[in-house]
Amino acid sequence: MMDTSDYKSFLEISGVGKSYIEYALTYLNNNDALPFKNGIYDGKERDKREKHLSLMMLNKFIKMMGEGEDAETLLNYWNTFRHIESRIRGDFHIHTIFSDGMNTVDEIIAEAEKIGYSWIVFSDHSPVKGNSYRLDDEKFSRFIDETGISSGKTSLSVYKSIEADISPEGVLMFPDRWLKDLDFIIVSMHENITDYNKTLRRIETAVKEPEVKVFAHPFYGLEHDNNTDYMENLLDILEETDTAVEFNFAPQYVMRNFELLHRCRGRTVKFVLSTDTHFLYNLYLMRFASAFSDLFHGDFAEKNLNFHENVYF
Ligand SMILES: [Zn+2]
Ligand SMILES: [Zn+2]
To answer: DSSP labels for 178-223?
Structure first.
């Protein structure tokens, strides 16, 4: 079992600021729930935004600690794999202040340079009306301008993408006019998935769009119950449409990636490795991918993806 003294180390994986971790620990030590208001912080002040996002992130971690062995296993992996595998050349899924991330494009690029990456993908969230944590027209044009200027100042290849939600009809939830400025599209679902068949039809329609190259965090919204048929059908669709499935190394998905890897064996589905970064130090979640590197590097990898590049298009 995880010891109280491990809590701090575990929370540090979250990548949020130390003061928020200390704050969360005072509640944990008293066995109290973290005081947390649901909903969106709608202001522009960076410190309030950071507090809100940090508590949201820490709540996820505290929930994981309460849910059993995963937290302990993650902490073990975290302590075992101290570095990002040098064969991993980039990160496919990163958020910035233009949606619900905490950092600027330049801050992320500077850290990615320190890691030694060759390339990076910015993928802020598609719009939701009234939600200030999402892109809108004004933020999108700044996103494109800033990534453009920043890519001129770095040796990294900077890709512009968007993490697009899918409407009930299977339509990508952002204006068509944005397409011309983007290198490719990542799609994902952000809701509790109850009707597997309906969801699969939505995904199938969306990934047929030629610009869509990746389906992100395939386990979002799925219960831990038996979803074998759903996952197998999803992988069929991705395989048929030449869409990559994402191995997402946000902590809540790390252990489920073993299941995904197992399901991908014998298939020709492509895949990408991502951290889904919202805080700068989330970039180091790619350390978890190192736990998978030997598994990726066998027969499976040769058939599907050049793992050395972590890029397939
Ligand atoms: Zn997402
Ligand atoms: Zn994301």
So the answer is: GGGG-S-EEE---S----HHHHHHHHHHHHTSTTEEEE--TTTT--
CA of 4 to the centre of ligand 2 (A): 30
Q: How far apart are the first and last CA of the chain?
A: 43
Each residue's pLDDT tens digit, 229-270: 999 999 999 999 999 999 999 999 999 998 998 898 888 888
Q: Facing residues of 274 across strands?
A: 248
Q: How far is the CA of 95 from the centre of ligand 2 (A)?
A: 6
The domains of the chain are located at 4-78, 86-304
Quote the ligand 2 centre to 250 CA distance (angstroms). 9
Nearest ligand, measured from the Cα of 217: 1
Q: pTM (2 decimals)?
A: 0.92
pLDDT digits (tens, 9 = 90+) for 154-177: 999 999 999 999 999 999 999 999
CATH pick for 86-304 out of 3.40.190.10, 3.10.150.10, 3.20.20.140, 3.10.105.10 = 3.20.20.140
- Ligand 1 geometric centre to CA of 248 (Å): 10
